[in-house]
Amino acid sequence: MKVYLKEGGEQWILIHIEVQGVNEEDFSKRMFQYFYRIFDRYEKKIAALAIMTSPYKNNYPKSFQYDFFCTTLNYKYTICKVFDYDDDMLRHSDSLFSKIILAAKYLYKTDNEEQKRYVFKSQLMRELIRNQSYSRLSVQAVLHFVDYLLKLPKELEQQLFQSIYPLLGEERKLMELYNKDNASPTIYNAFDLERIQGREEGILEARKSIARNLLKQKLALEAIIAATQLSKEEIEALQSELQ
Question: Taking the complete model, does pTM exceed 0.70, yes or no?
Fold first, then answer.
């Protein structure tokens, strides 16, 4: 990416981010290999960040060292451990990245605890949608990440998008993420629910309109029921409206 320096100049910086969830003996060597391949191709300054997501104790080396016949190399990079961050601090932070870290932690915290994961995912997605200080494009990207990371059983996923659907209606005028083509799976399914419900409401209204016309023509109640598939109570309610 291109950044602007305080004195006004421009600087290109390449950021190498490696997300690691398991212990790997040659991890530091791989970090160095990626570094020299990137540098060899672009010849730009590189900042390297290793994000460790596992809650378990690990012995990740913080550098790659090489020493052979008076030829030495010491390649260091920054390490960020997800579980070093406090949950309460992440929850109260205004940073959108803090929500990503919190979601990464809950991947492990809710392992084999489907209901607990559902509750957390629902709360997090609602917070992301409602917070107007976040870029809508960024929110859309984070919702994709959360959906990818925190998988739920089919029945809980269905329960989730059904609970999210009313919220989408509330926030419609405020959000740009209502682009169904780019929506995350949960938001996409909520859109589908809206389409299905809208279609069903349209069908119901069409049947009621037909019933009103048939009532005006003094058609028998049983015939109107057969023609519209409305219940006797629904048709009687329409008849009362016409009187």
Answer: no
